[in-house]
Amino acid sequence: MYAVIVTGPKRDVPEDAGTRSFSRDSDLVDRSHLTDADIEQCARVMQALSGWQEAARTLSEASKRYMKLNESDMRAIRMMIRSQQQGRLVTPKDIAREVGISSASTTKLVDRLVAGGHLIRTQHPSDRRTVCIEVTESTRISAHETIGRQHARRFAAAAAMPPEDREAVIRFLTALTEADEPQGALA
Q: Is residue 95 situated within a structural domain?
């Protein structure tokens, strides 16, 4: 649910405004240059974004349950699959950096994923002191058939749009990313 906070001349809010709420006295959003249709369209954009975020959360939770993994496990496995596809070796240090955890936590993560049949340890080809980590073929296939197929559907949705619409989406998502950078007390 999004609360759209707007300011400017008072306007009537339709009865069917759903999950939207408009604050007529907020100084956070200047709507003085927007028509009622503009405000409605902006609210629909926020509702669509909220719907997509909820769908992505639901999919992420379903993927974690299906693969019996937590968020850190999933991040580590995604990074290792990408690295393996690019022919790069992965060490525990790489996993720690990607997931943002300590070396002790990385050891626990790797131990758990090895025990679960998701990873294997191998010896580094040129440094016998270094251990490399690889995703098992069964986990790679499982990720490909679930998460990979979902990414393909997302790509197809983007590919179905005309180029000028994709450029508008890119501009919007880039602006949204910049708008969501922590500022003030959150920085």
A: yes
